[in-house]
Amino acid sequence: MPFAITLRLDSASAGPIEALWLKLAADGIDADRHQLGYAPHITLAIYPDEAPLNRLRSALEDICRNWEALPVRFSGLGAFPGDGAVLWAVPVVTSELLARHQAIQTALPDLRVYAHYRPGAWVPHVTLSAALPDPGPALMALLSNWEPIAGVLDRVDLVSFRPVEVLQSYGMRSERFIT
């Protein structure tokens, strides 16, 4: 099973994303994200299953030790086209978010990361639906009630997936935020 390093939304921020997942499931479009059993998140990196787990654990512990929670705002919806289109919530990209991604890449330069997560190729997103033959119905279902979402990324997780298993998790300090 591959490994991923993710920034997870806090429970209050996750609610609106989970509502989008539920809408897609209720409309019979896609229930995968709703059934996945893992909170809404932005994936910073995905490594193949042969990646050395001890290196991933050690690097993550060193890197995120002093990270603070990040504010995040989702401004719209996007789609990665293809045979199985992916629909996603579009975060406003900040220098802090890019710095988190770069920190992971810098700490593990010799590990093979999936192509879409390499510097210069990474597009931050929260997946709403995947493998859609036609994203049109999903977009129409979600656009009718779309409003920008403001939230906080407050945890860093190392997970293996499918099924998702959290192998390591760190809460990020949130002194900057009043909830």
Number of helices: 5
Helix share, percent: 25-40%
Largest sheet: 7 strands, antiparallel
SSE-based structural type: alpha+beta
Mean of residue pLDDT? 94
Order of helix and strand elements from N to C terminus: EHHEHEEHEHEE
Amount of beta strand: 25-35%
What is the overall silhouette? Answer: globular
Radius of gyration: 16 Å
- Spans where pLDDT lies below 50 across 5 or more residues: none
Plain-language structure description:
This protein is an alpha+beta fold and 179 residues long. It is built from five helices and seven strands, in the order βααβαββαβαββ. It has helices at 11-26, 32-36, 53-64, 95-107, 136-143, and strands at 3-9, 41-47, 70-80, 85-91, 126-132, 149-160, 165-171. The longest helix is centred in the first third of the chain and has 16 residues, at 11-26. The model has no long low-confidence stretch (mean pLDDT 94).
Characteristic key phrases:
single chain, 179 residues, alpha+beta, seven-stranded antiparallel β-sheet, 30% helix
Topology, please?
Elements: E1 3-9, H1 11-26, H2 32-36, E2 41-47, H3 53-64, E3 70-80, E4 85-91, H4 95-107, E5 126-132, H5 136-143, E6 149-160, E7 165-171
Antiparallel strand pairs: 1-2, 1-6, 3-4, 3-6, 4-5, 6-7
In short:
The chain has 179 residues and is of the alpha+beta class. The protein has five helices and seven strands.
